[in-house]
Amino acid sequence: MASRKIAVTLPEPLYEAVETARKHEHRSRSDLIQEAVRAYLEVPKYHPSQEELRKIDQALAELDENPTGGVDWEDFREEFMRV
């Protein structure tokens, strides 16, 4: 894969943090910054809260008891997003 060189200006505290991390991890500055940019650009990963997990479990249990029942998706979504 082709690479391009860029210049980045960092405030002193951030530069020191990068230097500390790279030395601690035995990595190059370039490698560390590439990983940070990749992580920043990733699609955020969703992690449901305990309350959201409880509601999902409850809904699945209700569906097991009554497979033809259920809740309209929009109603569920509205209730789910209130958490």
Automatic annotation (TrEMBL):
Domain annotation Ribbon-helix-helix protein CopG: ranges: 6-42
InterPro entries per record: Arc_rbn_hlx_hlx, CopG, Ribbon_hlx_hlx
Gene3D superfamilies reported in the protein's UniProt record: Met repressor-like
Example GO biological process: regulation of DNA-templated transcription
Top-level taxon: Bacteria
Pfam families in alphabetical order: RHH_1 (PF01402)
Protein name: Ribbon-helix-helix protein, CopG family
Source taxonomy: Bacteria, Bacillati, Actinomycetota, Actinomycetes, Micrococcales
